[in-house]
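Box 3.1. Reading complex inputs
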Amino acid sequence: MESLLTLLQEVLPDLLQGTLVTLQLTVVALAIGLAVGLPAALVRVYGGRVPRWLAVAYIEIFRGTPLVVQLFVVYYGLPDLGITFSRMAAAFVTLGLNSGAYQAEYFRGAIQAVGSGQMTAARALGMTQWQAIRYIILPQAIKLALPAWSNEAISMIKYTAVVFLIAVPDLMGKAKILGGRNFNYMELYIIAAVIYILLVFIATRLVRTIERKLYTPGLEMEAERH
Amino acid sequence: MSDQALLRIEDLHKAYHTHEILKGITLDVQEKEVVVIIGPSGTGKSTMLRCINLLTRPDQGHIWLEEIEITAPHVNIDKIRQRIGMVFQDFNLFNHLTALQNVTIGMAKVLKMSAKEAHEKGMWELERVGLVDRADHYPAQLSGGQKQRVAIARALGMNPHVMLFDEPTSALDPELIGEVLTVMQKLAEEGMTMLVVSHEMGFAREVSDRIVFMENGVIVEQGPPKQLFYQPKFERTREFLWKISELYGKDEEESSE
Amino acid sequence: MQDLAFLFSYLLQGLGVTIGVTIIALSFGFVLGIGMALLRVYGNKLASTLAAIYSTVIRALPVVLVIFILYFGISRIVDLSPFLSGAFALGFASTAYQSEIFRGAILSVPQGQMIAARALGMSRWKSIRYIILPQAIRIAIPAWSNEAAIVLKDSSLVYVIGVPEMLRRAEYVSARTLEPFIAFGVAALIYFILTFTTNRGLDYLERRYKLQM
């Protein structure tokens, strides 16, 4: 017990620093994912042939390959093409684009669930397609996609953990470094696990509260694991 | 009543929380007898039926099937249930099995018949309900009436000593009720002991040996159909029969005059 | 050109490992996942609570962390190759997700099915075995296919414990040829083809065994 306390005293400050990095990665990735995913969904549903095809390619490539591999292509591979990222930037970009592909699918599902009748009715009122999307379709679709989106947000906390493989000092990375110092990996990983569980628990609470506030009765969609 | 009764129910009580569903039911069913139980909905008819094969455990009271007290502790209920066929309001056919497989699964897995034996007997049971040509259809490909006939064949396949019917035609479209009642009538004529909860007054009058009128968890009155229909002892029985024939059996009422 | 041919053949040697890890992990998770789902739905209070805690905890953790912890855990108890401990670790993680899939599927089998099975004289276990599970498994196919694709992708994570699967091999090549874009890009391409075919195959399975109700 005493040795555990000593260990905690020793490693907690570092692990908390890592936790902050994890949270930062989570938030930024979600934001990038939203900024990319929502337009990708719109293009996939309403776009012309070529843009639609591009959106499908983006979504399917990112959903069809492992996140670690994407991370390595971006961080180690892209410099071959003259595009160089810092570790942190590579992590942001990869996590963001990866999440964007999944978010695009949630939004696409939601847009399709809203139904074509809404679009027809809006167009009949004299709205342009963009106005109909902006004022009629999207407000409904976003509410429909909310449960899936919030689960994505919670899961993002744990998805970020792979970035330690390009030496980003997130919670996972810090645990590995600290574990390597005294070869007490197991202890460090378990402490990190407890922190992840706490983060997910708190995030779940938070998200459910927000959801309840924004809840409108109707269809809901489920998130998909990735 | 008689000591040789096939099924004896004595002082059956059942409550959910504080709500008493059965308030002391006593009923004997003789071999080859067809008993129809009628009464307003929510009076415990289905609960009583479910108590008989212990799908619902009674709080108090005893049930004997032939020589065995099935409410006694440590009775192997799975063995008892093999002797009691049950047909449900909403069919409950096994969705992943064909009509024939629905009939044979109990024979194969419970009675341990060989595949060949089960197949032969299964086809024979389907023959009895007139559905041999539907043997390879899945429940989703059958009409409601056909589903219920398969369900009857499934129960018959276990060679039950008594058949319980829990509102077997209530979930059916009117035009499909007849085919199920015909099968049930044939069963009765073959000498099957049957306990039927139903609103089909025509069936009750034509086929049953005895009608039991239940209300609020007790048996109000029972007797042969003629007696109950034409000389009920209680005002409540008369009122109910009048109401129910208004609802269901208007034309049958006229045809039997 | 020669490099590319070498790269492909070298990576494809890792394909067997990737597929092996995936199949072991999926099967392991399938058996334990169904077991846990049954405990959740039909087990006594203690067993059901324990299964629920397992599932909740594992699903809150990054898969790579689960792999590390279980790898160290397993290697303290038995001496297994990294390949097997990696596959089992991934399997333990998948168990949690699969238990949720099967629990949902079991709960969506209409209650009347169990009642009708019991009324035929089937024991509780026989009813589960012959009536509930065959239906639940079919209901679970779409979600399970998704899980299969995820485990396939997550199998790349066992690279962290030194299993020579495709990602590990891509890394060797990248270090050797100094062309990481091509090395990792080709690995990505192979993964893509794999998940694509897996999804198509399982779509077929789904159509073939779709349960009509």
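In summary: The two ends of chain A are 37 Å apart (CA to CA).
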